[in-house]
UniProtKB/TrEMBL annotation:
Pfam families referenced in this protein's UniProt entry, alphabetically: Carb_anhydrase
Function summary: Reversible hydration of carbon dioxide.
Domain of life: Eukaryota
Domain Alpha-carbonic anhydrase: 1-258
Name of the protein in question: Carbonic anhydrase
Gene3D superfamilies per record: Alpha carbonic anhydrase
E.C. number: 4.2.1.1
Record SUPFAM superfamilies: Carbonic anhydrase (SSF51069)
Gene (UniProt): car15
MF terms (GO), sorted A to Z: carbonate dehydratase activity; zinc ion binding
Cofactor: Zn(2+)
Amino acid sequence: MVLDPYAWGDNFESCHPLLEQHHSPINLDHQMSRNQSLGSLHLKGFDVAQTGPWTLENDGHSVVLHVGGGMSVSGGGLPGLYHTVQLHFHWGSPASNGSEHTVDGRRYPMEMHIVNMKSIHPNLTAALADPTGLAVLGFFIDVVYADNVHFGHISQKLSSVAYKGQTIKMKPFPLMSFLPTHNLSQYYRYYGSLTTPPCSQAVVWTLYEVPIYISWSQLAQFTSQVFSTEEDAEQVTPLQNNFRHVHPTFSRIIAASKDARVLSGGGSPPPRSTKTLFLFLILLLGTFGCDNYNYI
């Protein structure tokens, strides 16, 4: 797969962002309208550990967790029942943020997508031919100074899938354990596309307002210890900046759920910059003479 998003259109015609097409990701700003009918989604099976092993994979573009059956998403204005099939991540580099969607033009350090397929479709090919064939739940990921113990279910396994093509079986765990459980009624909704080839315009996007928090060291496991090349490649290449560029919204309506806080005329602090926080921490520790700290 070509990693440069600007070149995808050379091999995938549907990735050309032509006028008035509804591509993703987009920038989220305060120019959105509240939709009182958008309440919490029903995340069935997210609060328990499913049976059967899951598979964690490095596909050369991201780290993907294939979750098998047992979980589904419905409600919250979605046009049907959707079965959960996988989740994956987008990130930047040690010096830059890497979420796909932006908030007021700023990126979060990472973004996680939980991909769900409409239950009426027998396979992904059929779902991609339906403008609402997929429902993707997007979660921004921000950084704090303590590990997210539950997120460790994934981050601690990354060394086993460091190189493209590597897979590992995983014991299932409740996905709800590292989601912002108390804020799942706060989200934004729009219709868009896959953010990787074939860029099909078949996605109902739900982007949650409150991020997942992980530690600096957990972020570094993605930005520095995962590679887009095979282990035996002559030159290994770090997997970094695996996000697609932002696209115009054109005539699309961006809706805020009834409990969302960021609306037209409202204010919200912009996402924090990983690089800015890192430099601030260095200066702070230097001020107090703490030269031996491991920053990430």
